[in-house]
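Thread: Newbie trying to understand structure tokens

Hi all, I'm a second-year student working on a class project, and my supervisor (Dr. K.) asked me to get a predicted structure for one chain before our next meeting. I've only ever worked with sequences, so writing a 3D structure as a token string is new to me. If someone could post the tokens and maybe explain what I'm looking at, I'd be very grateful. Here's the chain:
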Amino acid sequence: MPFEIVRNDITKMHVDAIVNPTNSEMFGVAGVDGRIHQIEGPRLRDETARMGGLAPGKCALTEAFKLPARFIIHTVGPIWKDGHDGEEEVLKSCYQNALALAKERGFESIAFPLISSGSYGYPKDIALSVAIRSIGEFLLFNEMMVYLVVYDKRAYKLSEALYASIESYIDDHYIEEHILQESSYGTLNQRIRQPREKLRRASKIQDSISEPSYSDVFLPKKQSLEDVINRMDETFSEMLLRLIDERGLKDPDVYKKANVTKQTFSKIRNNNHYTPTKQTAVAFAIALRLNLDETKDLLLKSGFALSNSSRFDVIVSYFIESMNYDINQINAVLFNYNEKLLGL
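---
Reply by user tm_fold:
Sure, no problem. This is what the structure looks like when written as tokens:
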């Protein structure tokens, strides 16, 4: 998929370039920078020393000598002060300039750590949001495989408001399999009918996070009974392509927002009986901004359904009901809950 969040050591990534968050002297002894210099040894230090200093937000390219990656893009992230000293602009520039440099060199893949979220003190939830938005904006207009590499859970954090909102929704909707098997009818019925106060609070929190315009959400087209009957045998590919045409969209508008490669979409367009994974089918529903009923219809075409006994399904339903169709943010949440990501 064009953008993937992975748990790994960035020094072990097999990509065209890894991004190294360094200091102005381009030589650090801690964090990612320290590990890279420890592996690469004197040759890297000699090369960065010849390049001179590096200003915050700027990037410089060096060869990777002993790493699986071919090159290293060095960048200087901002030191967190209070959030009102231009930190976000500098951090966004780190991602934008690194991606622009990778594009200029014709790279097909690049891996980022969560820049400035370590010793520079940038709050991890805000750093994650900036990273996702910056990478997402680039991928809307460019083709490249981009990884956000998380070393461990301590380096990864959702915003407290978003996390609380999702937790409340999951608590109200998610029914674990063992509860279905072991609970009596009365106990289960009581759980299903529990008060919705948490969900109401969650809705207020979500409103403060994002308030999509109603005009931005595609309204379902009214269908006649004849239309419904004629489409009963419609395949997933046929329904997907019909929805794209009905909304007047271009193919790249859809597959990029679905976090799906051009190659995969070509297979779908050229094969009426293409069978997607559930993650791919849901990704296209998100890209097309389908409502919950439309999403279920599209999933049924490929033999899938949404269930309250699946945490993946509940999380997807949360975002659709909230009219939040940012697939990168959805994947950030799915990653947090150790669920499969949308796309391929």
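A couple of things are worth pointing out once you decode it. Residues 87-104 form the longest helix (18 residues). Strands lie at 3-7, 17-22, 59-63, 71-76, 109-112, 145-150. Feel free to ask follow-ups in this thread.
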